[in-house]
Design goal:
single chain, alpha/beta, Rossmann fold, 6-stranded mixed beta sheet, 4-stranded antiparallel beta sheet, 37% helix, binds adenosine-5'-diphosphate, binds magnesium ion, ABC_transporter-like_CS, P-loop_NTPase, nucleotide-binding
């Protein structure tokens, strides 16, 4: 099967008052259908710029991006691209447009010109899918941050995307909201086979990814399975990034001369390793 996202040597420059600043620098990345990719990187490394390029909010100044074989520079495909690759942002309040939950979720499919019966069905399915169906008649501003973010996700799912790009969707949430949203994202990937591109600065959210991509200065500087990436503790620290808590603990214990595997990511793995 072909890749859902193909990023072919893209660069992106913001130009402000004749000052050019390169936010993406000859970046290449292909993403397979059904893959769960987590992107990490220090502030200013270009993650949001990349996500906006994937959604055709920005267009590469050099190189090409294909979403489902559609070039993001082809304006005639703009809505097909945004329907195939939906996007969820950091602040749920900026994404909710209606005063009732179910109307908010209906907004996307209405804009796609979908028939009312079908919209009704999709709104119901999408709200059930994020566990927010019982709130369908509620006012969004009365919901918690995690609930609002799940409504925003339902609004995207209602457009039946193949891929969803999440740009730090948990950054403004409390720990329980963060868990709600992460469980929803994982379920969409595992049960509905939606391709996920998840940008985060919480390393624990990267542990279950199929692949982690590390960005720095508009380039990919490291990528691989979580165990392959998090083994580079020193390199990640130099890039200003954390590692999962268990990885940090392993790193410190090994420095003290304790004989244990170096690729531990979770509490379960730590327990197994220490009790063996
Ligand atoms: P991240 O999401 O990883 O924090 P961004 O993609 O937001 O990084 O930013 C990448 C670089 O582009 C940074 O140097 C940032 O200052 C710059 N940048 C981001 N948005 C703009 C903008 N609207 N105008 C000019 N420069 C920008
Ligand atoms: Mg950002």
């Amino acid at each position: 099967m072909n890749d859902i996202v193909k990023i072919d040597n893209i660069s992106f420059e913001y130009s402000q008052e004749n000052i050019q600043s390169k936010a993406l620098d000859e970046l290449n990345l292909d993403i397979k259908r059904g893959e769960f990719v987590v992107i990490i990187g220090h502030n200013g490394s270009g993650k949001s710029t990349l996500s906006k390029n994937l959604n055709a909010i920005l267009k590469p100044t050099k190189g090409n991006i294909l979403i489902n074989d559609m070039n993001t520079k082809d304006d005639s495909k703009l809505w097909n691209i945004r329907q195939s690759a939906g996007m969820v942002f950091q602040n749920p309040d900026n994404q909710i447009v209606a005063t009732v939950v179910e109307e908010d979720v209906a907004f996307g499919p209405e804009n796609l010109g979908i028939q009312p019966d079908e919209i009704k069905k999709r709104v119901e399915e999408s709200l059930k899918s994020v566990g927010m169906y019982e709130f369908k008649d509620k006012a969004p501003h009365l919901l918690s941050g995690g609930q609002k973010q799940r409504v925003a996700i339902a609004g995207i799912i209602a457009m039946k995307p193949e891929c969803i790009i999440f740009d730090e969707p948990t950054a403004m949430l409390d720990p329980s909201g963060r868990r709600e949203v992460m469980n929803t994202i994982k379920r969409l990937n595992q049960e509905e086979n939606i391709t996920i591109i998840h940008i985060t600065h919480f390393m624990e959210e990267a542990v279950d990814a199929d692949r982690i991509v590390v960005m720095e200065k508009g380039k990919i500087v490291l990528q691989g399975k979580p165990k392959e990436v998090f083994i580079h503790v020193d390199k990640l620290k130099k890039l200003g990034l954390d590692v999962p808590f268990m990885t940090e603990l392993t790193y410190e214990l090994r420095k003290e001369g304790i004989d244990m595997r170096s690729d531990i990511l979770t509490v379960d793995e730590m327990v197994m390793n220490l009790c063996r």
